Amino acid sequence: MAELTPQKRVMLERLRAEKKFQPHDYPPLGYTGAESEEDRIKATAAVNNVIDNLLALPDGPIQARVVSRDIGRGMKKVGWLATEDRDRTGDYMIEVWYILGFRGATGRFAHGSWYKKPEGYGEPLPPGWSAPDKPRPIG
């Protein structure tokens, strides 16, 4: 369980408003940007749909399985994209997971050894995050 709070809502709204799938050099791996504009639009819609579903909920407790299920649905929508774009979609989904404050694994991703998980957490830090409570500049 995690708690959906007004502060977390603000972070989710900022992430939703951000122009996604742009090139970046956040560690551990950089990203060259979406393969095509069509792919960027579809991947952005998958991420924003998960965020919209969360923002539609009232403040209060939220179960990990509900969020994980939405993440799984979103990832299915991008299953045909280029590997780099699918991976970046996953990075955004993990970012949502961390914004909400979950510590365990989503149950949706497997990562290589270059993705280090913070002690006590089940997912690696999203690109650009320096700690579980220190996100990259969003927006």
Short description:
This protein has 139 residues and is mostly helical. Helix content is 45%, strand content 4%.
- CATH architecture, by name, is Up-down Bundle
What is the structural class?
A: mainly alpha
Q: Low-confidence spans: pLDDT under 50, at least 5 residues?
A: none
Gyration radius, in Å: 14 Å
Q: pLDDT average, as an integer?
A: 93
What is the CATH level 1 assignment? Mainly Alpha
Task: Determine the strand fraction and express it as a percent band.
Answer: under 5%
Number of helices: 4
Distance between the termini: 27 Å
DSSP strand count: 2
CATH fold-level assignment: hypothetical protein mp506/mpn330, domain 1
What does the overall shape look like?
globular
Order of helices and strands: EHHEHH
Helix content: 40-55%
Tally of domains: 1
